[in-house]
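Session log. Operator J.P. requested a structure for one protein chain; no other inputs attached. Running the standard single-chain path with token output.
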Amino acid sequence: MELFYYVVFGALAAVVAALELGGKSNKDRITTSQAFNSFKNNYILVYSLMMAGDWLQGPYVYYLYSTYGFGKGDIGQLFIAGFGSSMLFGTIVGSLADKQGRKRACVTYCITYILSCITKHSPQYKILMVGRVLGGIATSLLFSAFESWLVAEHFKRGFDSQWLSLTFSKAIFVGNGLVAIIAGLFGNFLVDSLNLGPVSPFDAAACFLAIGMAIILSSWTENYGDASESKDLLTQFKGAAVAIASDEKIALLGAIQSLFEGSMYTFVFLWTPALSPNDEEIPHGFIFATFMLASMLGSSFAARLMAQNSPKVESYMQVVFVVSSASLLLPILTTFVVSPSNVKGGGISFSGCIQLLGFCTFEGCCGLFWPSIMKMRSQYIPEEARSTIMNFFRIPLNIFVCIVLYNVNAFPITVMFGMCSIFLFVASILQRRLAAIADKPKAEDWVAMKERDTEADPLNAS
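Structure written below.
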């Protein structure tokens, strides 16, 4: 492997280690209680197990389908089914968490994803399609139910609101960084070293999910969103839509999240062809681990930023979006600045090295984004419909990703990166607007809106 990869990986690892070990006393100046630390550690353990179940599968989904003999078109349809399921069924199931209980929704995630893993043992296309649908539902629950449970339980136990950022940043650092690296290495060990086949990471994922589910069942208490007697899902959707439409801050937050995550998921599909346009030999697993290190670095910075009163999350995220927009412009700029190579194979090109540094910068921005967006969601989204509104945010995201997947070969890669860069710049503009109105009081709270709607339509009252 080329020295360049080791230099980038080593530099990132050194900075992360310095921040986490050398700067720990500065980061943890917020005085917390023993009860909170136990609560935080329990959540981080569960979240890490959940993310391990997700990360173990990611690198091997496409590979497994190809070993079953399916072509690019069939595999593309399976991926679209997953995102489409997350948009349609996942939104409904995720929204039920507010009514039926967030703990129950987290257990449902474990069961659904375990069933999805089991379907990977079958080479039949229909069964694999069922697995993708189940996986889409699980994804919606992963990115809504756990956060909703955490926020509600945090305040129910009377913990300081500032402590919430400690849990967010550490969960992302461990779950989206350290666990991702370990899961990638462990999956590689199962498939390549032990020769257990491409389905073995899915079996391992099911085991981690089962362990996490046991911890949830034994140590978590239930909490709910809207505690009214009405179980009408349509009313819940309507109330969430009214909350988004009536509060500009919630609408801005949803748009920002969709723009950033849409660009992020598009980047996942594009980074490989961007770094190897002429079939250059690149170490995919090592590069993935490098990206995760960059993400850990970003979440470590986020922990320090959120521990201070200034700058506020709404302010520094404007800079994060501008930097992320610039980093995804590099594949376009290098086509004009660096002469393209027409030599097939070989090692990574000079332009590829520049792009890799830019991609690491983008992953660092992702590490900053996750705990920061969680903090803003905890501030602006009403508790009564938290899961419902968070799944509403994922609808445009899933539509966008499905369109990108369907047309991934229709546009040059530079056009796709340019589109993502524009989206991220728009996100920075929306973030600036959010920062300007952050302290503006809401026109009316959730209860007032619901009472108003009930009076206007008494037939929906129960």
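Operator note: Confidence is low (pLDDT under 50) at residues 458-462.
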